Amino acid sequence: MSGVRAHLQLAVLLAIGLAAGIWTFVAPWALGYPGAGAVAWTRPIWSNVIVGAVVAVTSAAALVTVLALMAHTGRRRGGAEGHPGPDAT
Amino acid sequence: MTMRTIVGLSWSFISGLAGVWLLLSPWTLGEQHNGDWTMVTRTQFGTGLGLAVLGGIGATVVVTQVVGALRESGVLRRPVARTAATGAASPDSTQEMEQVLVSLASALAADLNRQQQGARPVPPAEVPGAPAPPVGPTARADAGWRGER
Fold it and tell me: For the whole model, what pTM was predicted?
């Protein structure tokens, strides 16, 4: 399996994870959890907000890292193809 | 590959853990009692299940990629297709089997030789009043002398 393809597979999963984290974060207001409009949040709202934030931030950081690694791999491969080196005939 | 593996497995672990927590949180936080599930319970259970499944898929993908890379680099060998079902054995496997059998036979022969060289006569059953049989390196000579007498 090529490196770029492996990175791409993981990036797709991380993007889905980012979307799931954002959904978890906003679900109390999107679905109208009891007490979502109040100043003091209820425990389910806190649970959703914390879990959603953790998943979204982790997924975003991992996605940026994997995309940077993918760009680095692609650039290195492109450079190797463009400059075959002294041994190439 | 190492960085990608670390990032992928860490993210899978965190996602799976967060999913399991969200899945159990209605009961852990005491928001759901016996009876019909509320809208909050259904949402948290579904979201948590999705996150846990996503973490599992991520871990599976990363492990598959690592195994594939190790196979490509030659560290891991590909599983050999079973030929017993078809009854046909490849020449390579037959030669390997012969080598294994030859080495096993030579090891058994060496072991038997060692046992024969270090063997001692088995003492006869003890009879009340009978003299104790001679023990030691002169035992065989002593037995032969008694037979001649």
Answer: 0.64
